[in-house]
Amino acid sequence: MKEESLLLLSDLQKLINQVVLIDYTIIILGGDLMSEKNLDFDTVIDRRGTNCLKYDFAVERGKPADILPLWVADMDFKTSSYIQAALADVVKHGIYGYSEVKDDYFNALASWMHNRHNYDIERKWLVKTPGIVFALAMAVKAYTAKGDSVLIQSPVYYPFKEVIEDNGRVAVSNDLVRLDEGRYVMDIDDFEKKITENDIHLFFLCSPHNPVGRVWTFDELEAVGDICVKHNVIIVSDEIHSDFVFKGEHHVLASLKKEYADITITCTAPSKTFNLAGLQISNLFIPNDSLRRRFKRELDAAGYSQLGIMGLVACEAAYAHGGEWYEAVLKYIKANIDYTREYVDNNIPGVHMSEHEGTYLVWLDFRDLGLSPAEQEHLIVDEAGLWLDGGSIFGKTGIGFERINVACPRATLKEALERIERAVKNLTQK
Fold first, then answer.
1. Domains of the chain listed by start with CATH number
2. Mean pLDDT taken over the chain
3. Considering the entire predicted model, what is its pTM?
């Protein structure tokens, strides 16, 4: 009997030893039983007082202290609880030294790219950087000389032009064409013309496009890809928003043809997908050995080596375990986009929402109001009490537009749209 009791106690101890308590969840070794905890996207979380760029630096940036911000592209949602748990483990360890990644990191990344984007990557292609804007600047340095021209497609994410011009190069735009129904398309003839006339050897592609919300079709990507191959143009494809596609299908440009892979630097990051922008981590894929060596030389010249441990851990946890959270937030944001369209169409005369296919950044057309950029800024900031991204910062073709971030609780979005409605109605009644 005594021996049987000892055996039972031994078995019980073995079971106990298998259980690891991590704050608010239980994970059993060999079988993860943790469930996603952060699926409430309706609750408004107060971000003030956290050194949050969006909420805590309005005055420093010339805005009223109590303004409602929907400008910068981060979410007002808690990230996946799996990511929180992984970061908590690092914090508990208490040593935050130089860190790198091993197979688990790459495997999580490779699995996500294969399953979500039908893109198979090789480990040697991977180059990690502290953000895609940093990577764009490195690409400018690696593949062009001072005075060279670099091609963009305006209206486009404004750091594209900034990193070109700040490094002594010239930004040339193949302007997107807005159709009557509010959909943007590429001017392919002008694209090739701009390349030949300006001796272009580097092109920044935004795919999906920020801010106009296009998800480029296979035919559109093939057209620009073939032209770039023909004229020996290197492509930096910013695909940071590729996990937010609501219409159509995202195509990784480098996956479409081998000749595209040979000239393309594909830029990805978990920052938009999982709300990790503050952890500053991006993953680039550069299949061409020569292009990869040239890029890495610029990283070395910049004094860059390892990323911070928090970003590395968060990225791995996101791609390995964040699928449930991602699917839920994708559904919520899609509902917010639909809500925005319906609200604008029904309640705000003179304002039109552009056709939206991807990203959580909605492009609103205010041009029918006939306002100058300064008058439009007054309407949005002073009358509506909102902080949006005025269209003029995206290039001259963005004048008359506003970019609004809808990755926020529905109550926040509703309040913002109601403020626009009141401001526009007051304007038209004067």
1. 53-73+324-429 (3.90.1150.10), 89-321 (3.40.640.10)
2. 93
3. 0.91
